[in-house]
Amino acid sequence: MGIWPVAKGSRLNRILTVRWTGQFTDGLFQSALASFVLFSPERAPNAVSAALAFSVVLLPYSLIGPYVGTFLDRYSRQRIIRNCNYLRAVDLLVIAWLVSNGKTGIVLTLFVLFAFGINRLILAGLSAGLPLLVKKEELIAANALAVTGGTIWVVIGGGVGIAVKNFVDKTYGTDFADSVVIILAVLGFLSAALSCFRLKKNEIGPSPHEMPEENKGFKEILEGLKILRNHPDALRGIFAVGMQRSGITALTLMALLLERNTFNDPANPDAGLAGFGRALAIAGIGIGLGAVISPYGVLKFGRHQWMRILMFACIPPLLIYAFSVNEITMIGSAFFVGLCGQGIKVTNDALVQSKINDEYRGRVFAFYDVAVNAGIVIGAIGAALLLPDSGVTSLLPFVIALVYLFAATVLMRKSNFAASTN
C-alpha cells in the first residue's frame, strides 16, 4: 500500500493491457523467428550469424529513434501506439507467408526490421505516457508492473509459441508451424490495437501546449540530451542500463550457442530450442523478482544506492559462471543477472520519468532507447568476437563482470551519480 498503483479507480490498467498484450504477442513472434532462423535443422548458427541476427533488428531503430521521440512529443501517443499495432499485424501477415515458403533473404530481413522498429516506437510511447496515469511516488512500482510484467509476458508468449510450433510441426513441418505461430501473433497485435480504445486520445500525452512546432529529428533529441545534462544522475543511469543490457545480450548469445551446439545434440535443434526456452524462463523469474523487490529496495536505500548495489550483485554469479561453464551455472547467472538488471532498469526508468517534463519525455525516452540499443549491439559484437561456435568460453563472462565493475565503481560512483536527492 502506498507504492503500488493498483487501488480502485487506477487508470494504470489501461496502459498495462496494451503493453502486456503486445509483449505476449512479441514473445509468440520472436519464438517463431528464433525457431525459423536459429533452430532449424538446415540452419546451424555460429557466433557471428547469431550476433548479426541481434544487431540487424536494432541498428536501424538507433537511426530513426530521434525522429520517433519527436513524433511522441507532437502527436497523440494513443493514436501512434494503436496505428503501429495495426501496421505490425499487416507486416506479420507478409512475414508469415515468407516463412511458410522458407524465404530467408533480404526481403524477410526488411519486413522483420520493420516489425522490430515499430515495436521500439510503441514501447517508447508507452514509457513516455505512463507518468501521466500515476502519482510521482508510484512511478517505480508502476514501472515494475509495466516493464517487468511485459518482460514476463514475452517469456510466456515465447513458451506458448514453442508449444504451438511443436504441436503443429508433428503433422505439417517446421516452416509451416512457424508461420502458424506468426498468424497467431497477427491476432495478438490486433488485440493490442483494439485495447488502445480504452485510452482517450491525449490521455497519455502529449499535452497540447507542449507539442513542438516542427520536427527537427536529431536536433530535437540533442535538446533532450541537454535536458539530461541538467540531471547527470539520470544520464549516468541511462548509460549504466545500456552497459547492463550489453552484458545480458552477450550472455543470451552464449546461452543460445551452448544450448544449440553443446548442451544438446546439434542434429536435434528442437531440444536446443527447448533448453534455451527453459533458460529464458528461469531468467524471467529473476526479472520478475527484481521488479517486485525494487520498490522496497528504493525505500530502504534510495534510488542511486539501490542501483549501485544491484550492479555489484551482478558480478559474483558471472565469476562463478566463468570458472565453470555448465548448464547449472549458466541458468544461475541468467537468474541473478536478470534479477539485478531489471531492478536497475525499472528504478532508472522512474528516475528519468520523475525528473523530465512531459514536453521532452518522448525525446528523452527515444534517446534512452537509442543508448540501450547501442549497448545491445555492442554486446552482440563483443560476443561474436569472443565466442566460439560451441559457446564454451570463460572469457566472455569474465569480461562482462569487469564491465559491470566499471559501471558500479566509476560510472555510478556516489560522488557523481548521486548528485541529486532521491
Characterization of this structure:
The chain is mainly α. It has one domain (12-206, 214-417): Up-down Bundle (Growth Hormone, Chain: A). The protein has helices spanning 12-37, 47-56, 59-72, 77-100, 106-129, 139-172, 174-195, 218-229, 232-262, 269-301, 303-313, 315-323, 327-355, 358-386, 395-411, 414-417. Helix 2 (47-56) runs antiparallel to helix 14 and helix 10 (269-301) packs across helix 13. The two termini are 20 Å apart. 55% of the residues are buried.
Gyration radius, rounded: 21 Å
User: What is the CATH C-level name?
Assistant: Mainly Alpha
The helix fraction, in percent, is over 70%
Q: What order do the helices and strands follow?
A: HHHHHHHHHHHHHHHH
Strand content: under 5%
The geometry reads as globular
| CATH H-tier superfamily | MFS general substrate transporter like domains
Please tally the helical runs, counting DSSP H or I stretches of 4 or more residues.
16
User: Under CATH, the topology is which?
Assistant: Growth Hormone, Chain: A
What's the N-to-C terminus distance?
Answer: 20 Å
Number of strands: 0
Structural class: mainly alpha
